[in-house]
Amino acid sequence: xxxxxxxxxxxxxxxxxxxxxxxxxxxxxxxxxxxxxxxxxxxxxxxxxxxxxxxxxxxxxxxxxxxxxxxxxxxxxxxxxxxxxxxxxxxxxxxxxxxxxxxxxxxxxxxxxxxxxxxxxxxxxxxxxxxxxxxxxxxxxxxxxxxxxxxxxxxxxxxxxxxxxxxxxxxxxxxxxxxxxxxxxxxxxxxxxxxxxxxxxxxxxxxxxxxxxxxxx
Length: 217
Description:
By secondary structure, this protein is of the alpha+beta class. It has helices spanning 24-46, 98-111, 123-139, 144-148, 154-157, 175-186, 203-206; strands spanning 58-65, 70-77, 82-87, 168-171, 191-194. A hairpin with a 4-residue loop joins strand 1 (58-65) and strand 2. The N and C termini lie far apart (72 Å). The mean pLDDT is 85.
């Protein structure tokens, strides 16, 4: 700790045959350092203890940032709970961020927490929803940082390992991956397609004009 640095000079002469420090002054100084460290650790640990969070009950209208622009939200709070999260998702691309608007609010309410993982492939919208709820909590007189320190919702921790048997694993469900899977299936192979995005299609599903994966047949 600052101000308690210690350099033991002549270390080969500082200990007796049993390995104990000889100088009582050195012992007293080290005991003082350890005492201060224990106090420091105790005080610091208090910052990690859960805070009691009290809200001013009501429905709070906030606007956050989604992938395609502003995302209006209404967050209903009781004195001690987040009760409801309504999101106007009409400005977002249908089918791409849909899982964000179902999973993120569900985990927030289930665990009464803002410690929620973003949806892979839709992180901008995921973080926008979390920021919007945090803003509503702040308007209600609460501290969103306290909710970020809470554990994740139980359903988010429910990780079950499963074993699958297949002939082929294709990583990526975009145009190329799906074409490869279709060809393998036509050849009688068992296929598993692994895709991190909430919906299959990759860049193809995002195409707004030119064909990204045309059918040449």
